[in-house]
Amino acid sequence: MTPGRAYLNTEEIRSFNGRSDLWGAWLVLHCWGIIALALAFFALWPNVLTFLLAVMLIGSRQLGLAILMHEAAHVALFKTRKYNEFAGEWLCGRPILADMFEYRRYHLKHHQHTQTAEDPDLNLSRAFPTTKASLRRKLLRDITGQTGFRQRSQQIMMAFKLAGEADDMSSQDLAQAFSGPVLGRALIANGVIFAVMWAVGAWWWWFAFWALPLLTWFQLVLRVRNIAEHGVVEFSDDPLRNVRTTKAGPVMRLFLAPYWVNYHLEHHLIMHVPCRHLPRLHRLMLEKGYGDKMRIGRNYWDVLKLAASRPA
């Protein structure tokens, strides 16, 4: 059952269902366009500041690709299913070393069992609240590439596991893992990115402007997003209390929360709603008087303070 049916009638839910091939194409083009503009900005004015800005912008758009892959996993990115599957796999998932099809299988379990013992994402949230020192260590490991390097290494190692061992792996392991063919497709996608970056820039651009953001800034904003969505919320089946929406201004949307990902509570209410409709769904929930019952963070800084509120 769609959790939103407890708060919205059939017509209201139906009003959010509209998908569009043009919107899907625009979102994918926008994501890659920001990446191209970041590279162009560095190429025109190469210095330390434009380098760091490019790493941050590209890392945030790598998260954007993950978000659009998530949209495709819910068959909400495009109206035409074949466009949805192709873009979700090749234009969004493979470039960031993700397998959309395995992710879809794993992620739907998260929606079915949110913040319960059966939730495969529970390990991302049950550690919070933690201490300030612990959160600092986590964020430091992310921004210095330690988390990213460890996770990518695990992905590669899992690619060489025997097929018979897959039954012994957890849902999250499978979502992170590569099979041989999946690893090959990820290498193809990154080979194309490497060739394009070399053609328009230099041979080292892929390492500096794709691998480095993926190992650092992407991991940092991914953790912050995960904390904001399910950190320090109720361990219950209440869809207004076991997930959080976080308010985000223009700067946060640029560097941390692209493509309306901050409206996570609304996404859980009706998981197949295209992301561009989530702000309107949020407004409707407030108009219907549910605002006081919803977990809504004032901003990401407040959510991080809450996540680090456990006494030392």
TrEMBL record:
Domain of life: Bacteria
UniProt entry keywords in alphabetical sequence: Membrane, Transmembrane, Transmembrane helix
The UniProt record lists the keyword Cytoplasm: no
Domain Fatty acid desaturase: 49-290
One annotated Gene Ontology cellular component of this protein: membrane
Gene Ontology biological-process annotations: lipid biosynthetic process
GO MF annotations, alphabetized: oxidoreductase activity, acting on paired donors, with oxidation of a pair of donors resulting in the reduction of molecular oxygen to two molecules of water
Cited Pfam families: FA_desaturase
Annotated coiled-coil segments of the chain: none
Matches recorded under InterPro entries: FA_desaturase_dom, Fatty_acid_desaturase
Parts of the chain that traverse the membrane: 23-45, 51-73, 178-197
Protein name: Fatty acid desaturase
